[in-house]
Design brief:
The chain is an alpha+beta fold. The protein has helices at 2-24, 31-35, 49-60, 70-92, 148-152, 170-173, 271-303, 308-311, 313-338, 344-378, 387-408, 426-440, and strands spanning 99-101, 105-113, 120-123, 132-133, 143-146, 160-169, 184-185, 189-195, 207-212, 220-228, 236-238, 242-246, 250-255, 260-267. A hairpin with a 7-residue loop joins strand 10 and strand 11. Residues 122-271 form the GAIN-B domain. Keywords: Disulfide bond, Membrane, Receptor, Signal, Transmembrane, Transmembrane helix. This is Adhesion G protein-coupled receptor G3 isoform B.
Length: 443
């Protein structure tokens, strides 16, 4: 027996020694070390040093865009702001070669007369350098149209206006990605337009970005956006100042400023699917109400046969929680049943009632936790005079106080949940309803 234990100890020791180097080895993504690198923003973009470094970081640093440590946040900001420097450098210094052709970034820098009498059009294709084309010619590719207003603003100041148009493949570069982004970038193409010497905003005649594409599925909604460097910690997509003109195989984005643009494709739910989900939700809430009713009725029935049910506070707390869940289901079904009525007073009343039911559920769940703490952890010296009465005052009274205060400042009424494109977020409400089903059906 002793020899057997001795051999086991040696086996464990050898195993630990074998795997110890593996435990000391850094993770494959090596997020912390790669996030400590810096980008030399003074590099000439033509030397491609910084560009190669960005490509390497995007390929090897898996957590660069997911980890919210201070080094990673700082590096993300450096990479994104590098592109502002990139275009500034490109249009400030006129190269003999006026274009830059990388695998994931294409740039065209062009001098245009300030006295031009028509709009200027550049093509943008993921695999090609942007090209200036005739504004009146037939366009077979995606293009960006710059109005005369941009160039007329330079009149009497300079003869030539330098414009830089850049296309970036966001898929290969790893740039321009929001945390938890649900929409996808059309063809992974981000387009940037910049004019030397002036920040272009508040245009009366919008900049038109024409995206040519195949006919898109009906469950995708199109949204014209630009990259807002001031949004969140790392920047994000914003639709302010942009609107879309939708066609079957073309989407025209009109924006009143110059920056990085793209067309986001957001998943949506069609009316048939939405109605099916709402019906499923109503049925689920109805089933939940049936079984909650059976639970309460069974409790009152058993009170006549078992003394425990008359005196046990645990069971009584369960019944109060079941009651709060029941009236919450009632509130939800009432909202669904009469939401089409145009009656402000009824809307406010239902809003307050629904809010009260939700708060009652939360307070009684908290009371369940408190009561469990007394039963399992504290155990001794847990007697509280008028215990259940005090719990009921908290469980049913506290929500009433909150709702009264909220209603007194006119917080209840008609509201619409909208996204950045001013569309009703039906999918959000459906997700909330489905969560309600999964929670309420557990009782």
């Amino acid at each position: 027996m002793v020899n057997w234990l001795h051999s086991v100890n040696w086996s464990l020791l050898v195993t630990i020694l074998i795997f110890l180097p593996l435990l000391a080895t850094p993770r494959g993504d090596n997020s912390e070390s790669c996030c400590l690198e810096t980008l030399p923003l003074t590099d000439n973009p033509q030397n491609l040093k910084t560009d190669k470094k960005i490509i390497r970081l995007s390929a090897t640093c898996d957590d660069l865009w997911q980890t919210n440590s201070d080094p990673c946040i700082s590096l993300r900001k450096q990479i994104l702001r590098y592109w502002l420097h990139f275009e500034d450098h490109l249009i400030t210094t006129w190269y003999t070669q006026d274009s830059l052709d990388l695998n994931w970034a294409k740039t065209r820098s062009q001098n245009i007369s300030a006295t031009i009498t028509q709009a200027v059009v550049f093509t943008f294709v993921p695999s090609e350098v942007p090209t200036m084309i005739d504004v009146n010619g037939k366009r077979n590719t995606s293009s960006v149209k710059l109005p005369m207003e941009i160039f007329q603003s330079f009149n009497n100041k300079t003869d030539q206006v330098t414009v830089a148009v850049t296309t970036i493949n966001s898929g290969e570069s790893g740039l321009f990605k929001e945390p938890n982004q649900t929409g996808t970038v059309l063809d992974n193409v981000v387009v940037s337009v910049k004019v030397k010497g002036k920040r272009i905003t508040g245009l009366r005649e919008c900049i038109e970005l024409s995206y040519l594409h195949k006919q898109l599925p009906q469950n995708l909604t199109r949204q014209c956006v630009f990259w807002d460097f001031n949004k969140g910690q790392n920047g994000g997509w914003n639709s302010s100042g942009c609107h879309a003109k939708l066609h079957d195989t073309e989407t025209v984005c009109c924006c009143d400023h110059l920056t990085f643009f793209t067309l986001l494709l957001n998943p949506s739910i069609d009316n048939i699917t939405a109605q099916s989900l709402l019906t499923t939700t109503n049925v689920g809430c109805g089933i939940s109400m049936v079984f909650l009713s059976i639970t309460v009725i069974l409790y009152f029935f058993l009170r006549f046969f078992y003394k425990k049910f008359k005196s046990d506070n645990t069971v009584k707390i369960h019944m109060n929680l079941s009651g709060s869940l029941f009236i919450l289901n009632v509130a939800y079904l009432l909202n669904n049943g009469i939401n089409h009525l145009d009656h402000p007073g009824l809307c406010k009343g239902l809003g307050g009632f629904t809010h009260y039911c939700l708060l009652c559920c939360f307070t009684w769940m908290a009371i369940e936790g408190f009561h469990l703490y007394l039963l399992v952890i504290k155990v001794v010296n847990t007697y509280i005079q008028y215990y259940l009465v005090k719990l009921c005052l908290i469980g049913w009274g506290f929500p009433a106080i909150v709702v009264t205060i909220t209603g007194s400042i006119n917080s209840y009424g008609e509201y619409t949940i909208m996204d950045m494109a001013n569309r009703t977020t039906l999918s959000l409400s459906l997700h909330i309803h489905l969560v309600c089903i999964s929670v309420f059906s557990k009782e």
